[in-house]
Amino acid sequence: MKRLTNNLDHFSHLDDLGGKLCRRGPSPSASGRLASHHPELDRFLVGGLPLGTIVEIGSPIGRGGRRPLIAFIAAATRGLTTAVPHWVLWTYSKGQVYPPAWRAHGVDLSRVCFVRSGSPMELRPALLSPLFKIIVLDAPTQLSGDDLTFLAHHARLRGKLFILIRNYLLTPDGHSIWPKLRLNIWRSPREPGAYHLDVIRGLSPRQAVITMDPAGGEYVAR
Fold this sequence. Notes:
This protein is α/β, with parallel strands linked by helices. Helices cover 27% and strands 27% of the residues.
């Protein structure tokens, strides 16, 4: 597991490294989607999460909604559904990361960089680095509409996937226009290992309950 700081020289080094890695292999998926290697989840999302976009996920604190998302991170860092393994940048605003939970679900922690920051735009050099094709913004406290416009532009331009997690359930009347896909995810309070998914925008209206191994604990302690 890597920890980053806001040191711009360090991010410049990552940018150079990212350019070299990107020349070695193709983009994460020829289909234009990042798959999770979980058949139910990928089928529900018509192949996975769309690359070159912002995906917004509603996942209330304490309701376990990040578990399905970890499947995508595991698949990406291990190269299960991509041409080569990929690096992931995960920013979070509160709490601390609990690595054993991630490792228990197959995440290669050597390819995940965790940064604690409530204002992701202060990490702009890392957000734009070619090293990171997948960037998770976990419950940022400061992210404006102009910031989302900027991220959406660079997602399209560079083929990145920005996953924006909100600590509340999304509603159809939300004013966020830039995410291409918006969905809610939460764990069933009555069925161990059952997770509810509800698409708000980006696919035809759909809901599902999928089963996943819940073992491993919380991913970000809050």
